[in-house]
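Methods — Computational structure assignment.
A single polypeptide chain was analysed. Its primary sequence is given first, followed by the predicted tertiary structure written as structure tokens.
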Amino acid sequence: MTTNTTKTTNGTATDTTKSATTAPTPIIPMPPAAARATAVTGSVIALAGTFLAWTWTDEFPGNLTVTGYPGGLQVLTLISAALTALFALSGYGIRGLRWLTPGGTNSPTRLLALGVLGTTGYTIGAISYELGGLVNLEPGAWISGIGALLALIGALGLPADHGYDRDESPHLWGRIRHSLSAPEPGRAKELPSWAEILIIAAGFGIGLYVFSYGISTEYSELFIGFLITAGFGFTAVLRAGLIKQLSALTAKHRNVTMAAAFVAAICFPFTQSNDQYALIGANILIFATVALGLNVVVGLAGLLDLGYVAFLGVGAYAAALVSGSPQSTIGVQFPFWAAVLTGAAASLIFGVVIGAPTLRLRGDYLAIVTLGFGEIFRITMNNLNGNSGPDVTNGSNGIPNIPDLELFGFNLGLPHNVLGTELTRSGNYYLLMLLFTAIVVLVFRRSAESRIGRAWVAIREDETAATAMGINGFRLKLLAFALGAALAGLAGTVQAHVSYSITPEQYQFAGSVPPNSAFLLAAVILGGMGTISGPLIGAALLYLIPAKLQFMQEYQLLLFGFALMLLMRFRPEGLVADRRKQLEFHETGQLDVPEDKPLPEGATGVAKAGA
């Protein structure tokens, strides 16, 4: 039974309805005051340890030998410990800190304490493994480790933010999961419009800083520590209710939110001094734009397409053939705008040609046919080499030496000085791809909110019912297939110039290097089907993590499958889910059929005949 809760001064939640619940109990039996004091003390000790040396040699990346100046992984422990202390102090009701926990109070503290222990423990383990034992640790590492452990013990001694149902008697794992959940935050206090816009801008500014820090990590140990800190930190902020309140503001100011998002994205290349990191950003945008196009097909229309990467390849090959490359068999050079239209039109035509005979199939049969199309495209590009077929694509050699673009006298292949900051080649292409991403987002948003978009959703939910209501399912599915193909071809025209060359092996169903069909589909599912920000976030994670953790490339597909299993178990609606998916996959406390209650005394009933 679902209960409504309100927060008390000690940070716990109390029942405000007649629902039967038991009082929340901590994982470790401790008085709440002592547990909170222990959490605060432990996080302060962990923070203080970051200002001492953690090892005696600079052979470990990040130079953790300096006293008084944290560096590398020490900075992540410092940030996590500081946030743990702040959220733990907010439980005292201190004025100026209450806004941190509009939802849960104790669950964010537990998650942040886990993040401190995870980051610190990983660092200690990495130092011991790489340098040959615990003997290589200096006192600072032990102090931070002991402080992180104390903070977690104190956090586990805090009561849960809401109680159990009386008929519920969870085991230890169930109690731990319950202690990490939190009640929904109440409605935020009304603020002036300018203040709400400033909060939205600050939120995107923090997001830009976190993303720039993660993408510019110089070694894998630091990136793994970043993932641990960011993962626990984001979940803690989510449990605290801050994300939901920010989402309410972004929904209220949608145009301002879109503008703030793209302003933050424009600022990204100016934060990067290394061209390699800007190139990762450009490739993430290509991957994300293609995933957003696939979201039209899968997320809105509900068509499972396993060969979608072929449409990206069609656009890339079309643009490469008319790019003026010396290895192009056509030998013509179109202006960029004409090349873009050529790539999008070629992909659209292929989408219609493939979709017309196959979209009468449903479910697994459609998935098998589209998978076959993706493989047919790759094999055909290999065979158009002058031996097995006409000489069009140079076979497995592909089309190399694709020249850089020049727009309005602005050569994207050369660095340029903009506002005192050097914009490298990768930064130039990043900004160009950002423009295309904005176009795709606009098309997706307008399509989803139109009558056609609502018809797509109806087909996705129940095609038989939609057809019975007069919706032409085949025509609308073909339209979704063609639109998704055209958006992929649009991204492919830029990809051809970014990568200098294209080959058939770049467009596989599954491989260690994205984009490929499996990773594109996973980006949509991971981020959240039918949303705008979901595929963008999913694509960024699925591209960035393999790019940073090169040593795990051999086990990438194994880890990828394991991550999808965890996602399907704990968050099947994706990282960013719309309201429909949340109601579909999670209990809401609402009954499917209203309770059959007797009429109150004196009320007049309605007979069946009268009804």
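Note: The two ends are 32 Å apart (CA to CA).
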